[in-house]
Amino acid sequence: MAIIERPAPTVPAIVTPTTTYGLLKRPVSATGWRSWVFTVDHKKLGIMYGAAAMLFFIIGGVEALLIRLQLAAPNGKVLNADLYNQMFTMHATTMVFLFVMPMAAGFANYFVPLQIGARDVAFPRLNAFGFWAFLFGGIFLNLAWFLGGAADGGWFMYAPNSGPVFSPSNGVDFWALGLQITGIASLTGAINLIITVLNMRAPGMSLMKMPIFTWMITVVQFLLLFAIPVITVALFLLSFQRNFGAQFFDVAAGADPLLWQHLFWIFGHPEVYVLILPSFGIVSEVLPVFSRKPLFGYPFVVFSGAAIGFVGWGVWAHHMFASGLGPVSVAVFSLTTMAIAVPTGVKIINWTLTMWGGKLWFTTAMKFAIGLIVLFTVGGLSGVTHAVAPSDTQQTDTYYIVAHFHYVLFGGAVLGIFSGFYYWWPKVFGKMLNEKLGSWNFWLMVIGLNLTFGPMHILGLQGQPRRMYQWTEARAGEGFFNFAFWNLIASIGSFVLSVGILLFLINVLITARNPQKAPLDPWNARSLEWMTTNPPKEHNFDVIPTVHHLDDFFHQKYEEDSVTHTMTQVRTAEEIMAEQERNADKHIHMPSPSYWPIVLAFGLPVITFGLIYSHLISVIGGVIVLFAAYGWALESSTAPDSDFETNTPGTGLDKVASNHD
Amino acid sequence: MTDIAHGHASSTGISNVKLGMWAFLGSECLLFGGLISTYMLYRGRVTGGPRPSQIFDIPFTSVSSFVLLMSSLTMVLAVSAAHKDDDRKTNLWLTVTALLGATFVGGQVYEFTAFYKEGLGFSTSLFGSSFYTLTGFHGVHVTVGIIMLMSLVGILKRGSVPGKKAEVVEMIGLYWHFVDIVWIIIFTLVYLIPV
Lengths: 661, 195
Hints:
Largest sheet of chain A: 2 strands, antiparallel
Shape of chain B: elongated
Helix content of chain A: 55-70%
Structural class of chain A: mainly alpha
CATH superfamily of chain A: Cytochrome c oxidase-like, subunit I domain
Strand order of the largest sheet of chain A: 1-6
Oligomer: heterodimer
Radius of gyration of chain B: 19 Å
CATH topology of chain A: Cytochrome C Oxidase, Chain A
Number of helices of chain A: 19
CATH topology of chain B: Four Helix Bundle (Hemerythrin (Met), subunit A)
Strand content of chain A: under 5%
Largest sheet of chain B: none
CATH superfamily of chain B: Cytochrome c oxidase, subunit III, four-helix bundle
Distance between the termini of chain B: 46 Å
CATH class of chain A: Mainly Alpha
Strand content of chain B: under 5%
Structural class of chain B: mainly alpha
CATH class of chain B: Mainly Alpha
């Protein structure tokens, strides 16, 4: 159902469905599984992003556990060298492209429209297409496991190692083409969210009144918008070399393998901010709510986020200090890398000062947010040690680097995501996650991740190289610096971590069975997404809010005493909701479900599959894409009124229509 | 494709589709930036194959470039006609634009064939690989533009444009102009500046 009618119509239904190609009736009133598959609702898509990303998180996690099993003892026998290479490549690829990015996309999809007081996104069908392209791309990437072996060149896939000579299986082809598909998903998602934020804010919501999560997501989408095409070029060059005999990375033909490294990291460094900034946004929402204080220095947090977005483009070569760039390049990139630590530090100080003097409420969401501050700082500090080029030369390709990026990505990005789960679960599903189990979830994850990644600092400085499938007792060192001890600790830690994550999944199941509904405003929250029901109605808000303040929902509930500057509650969330219900908009047009996003997205892996096996299949895929593209172009975003069975002709829908045309 | 689901005008005053196209074109800049950088790095590496100066036919490519640039003019006329709600002229100028674009692509096909016969294959040298990739990507962009223009003509004739007509014409116009501008850069860097 996509038209919200209030009160219920009394005129009998007149249904004259529009069709595409004269055959396909638009699924305007789809129910059951069809209401999910053909949906264009940003909230359903957000949940689907989250569920799919969680599945890939588990796959990537199992890959990580196999790696740690292999390395737990000297001369590991769990995996052979080839399988080990595939395992760490797919672990990283999965975690980066199929877990953190889509999970952040899920949060963004769900909450950005709610936070800016909109009823949907700018391009609902494009949004649905983005999800399906991500999902099909992710499945396509993993198909390689069953078709001759997955990619094995590391997630950075350095040339010339990625060429057909050194990677003869189809794994790299699946990898390159699969990432093209997920790249298309990210690009369309970025365009959609940027336009949503720029164009669809509620009246009164200036950019500097936007919630900080929306701000960080916006920065991320701009990073994606400009970073994705660079990796697209790199992947095309790689595919052309592997499939059509181009020579881009063929050293014998005079090619420069550094070209790949530059293209990859010009994408790859903005990409790390793509991974971390959404979590920065989440904790910037969580910390003020559970400190009972506004975010300290809101403009500084906004501008430091934007500054990270800009400077993030000027640091890529710090991934290449050991490749012989020359002293000038190394010095410049060393300096820019140290510079980017400044806006990051600004954020950490702002979060800390948000908590300073606040009435802290240690919910699970808050614990995860504090965990992010502490552990990201640890990772940030080890990051600064790589900014110093001579020190980096010592650390390159050792476990010290692995320790660093897991502290920033797991300690940072993942803890932020979990903070978001606990904070927003009641909003999305209408039920509170169990706090007691949440506490166990948090502590096991934090202990587990420190046990896993902490020892890697020592292992790395002792010289244990990354990506080696075995280490031998003979070179393991003695005493405190013994490889065997710390590798075993790291492996044990990885299982502690897994138990923590398992507790989260159990918590989700228990919560789903718990009949108790969450209160309307369980955390006494501040931003607009809480100014609606749990879960929100399909049209999000009965009345589009008019915004007067940053944290507008809070300011609707509380008023400041002009003398004492204390905030006193004047209204409850329930009262605000009741008032909205009374003044609810009568006729709201929502975008209608459509077949075409999923069909168009399905055509993409068919094309890429054909590129590897038979060009005839690609032609079929191309036909599917064209067929879907025309179907898409020929229908309007919102189905005409005549498609709806509840249509009441001439009762006011005309008034609404005039707003759009 | 009009902005639905919110009862007020867009915050910026620019429609979603137009702003979306601008964002997409921003992204395209980086795509061509990457391809152009690759070409500039590799254009002198010919390993036994023909050098750029040996195969380029500057007068021929100049003419086809001129044809492509003129198509921007006809695109402007189409947009202008669409704003005046003149369907006949909109269709006319869109068709002319597509024909000019097709002439350019035809010229590119001819050029590629000629270069291939002169010994520059896709895998002959780094110059060959990067030249065909860069100009090929541009050619594909022009081709996609032609398909969009012709589809638009068809849809206009059926009278089933989703959203505002002038807006859609203008959005495709933005894309078309972008592809033309990129060609000015490619033509200068690839053909006119000697290695």
